[in-house]
Amino acid sequence: MRDLAWSGGSPLAVSPPRATVSTGGTQAFTADRPVTWSVAAQAGAGTGSIDAAGSFTAPAALPPLGGVEVRAAAADGTL
After folding, report:
1. The model's pTM
2. What is the rounded distance in angstroms from the CA atom of residue 10 to the CA atom of residue 76?
3. Among 21, 24, 56, 58, which residue has the least CB neighbours within 10 Å?
4. Which residue, among 68, 66, 54, has the nearest Cα to 15 in the 3D structure?
5. Count of CB atoms within 10 A of residue 41's CB?
6. Residues 12-50: pLDDT tens digits?
7. Interatomic CA distance for residues 66 and 10, integer angstroms
8. Cβ neighbours of residue 71 closer than 8 Å, sequence gap 6 or more
9. Are 17 and 24 in contact (CB under 8 A)?
């Protein structure tokens, strides 16, 4: 996973900023404000999923390009 980044405004704090999760494993993410979570897609690959509470479930197999990117966007649209 990549560290989360931002441009302008107050930074969005996400914890943990980076995680190693085994295939099929889970990881809880939290943010310092309400966010919408998503997982960046890779063509032809399962990338896992994340629910509204920030619970990420890794894919059953590692995507061809390696890591998976979890994204957080401020629910109020500021970040």
Report:
1. 0.79
2. 13
3. 24
4. 54
5. 12
6. 899 999 999 999 999 999 999 999 999 987 766 678 999
7. 30
8. 4, 37, 38, 39, 40
9. no
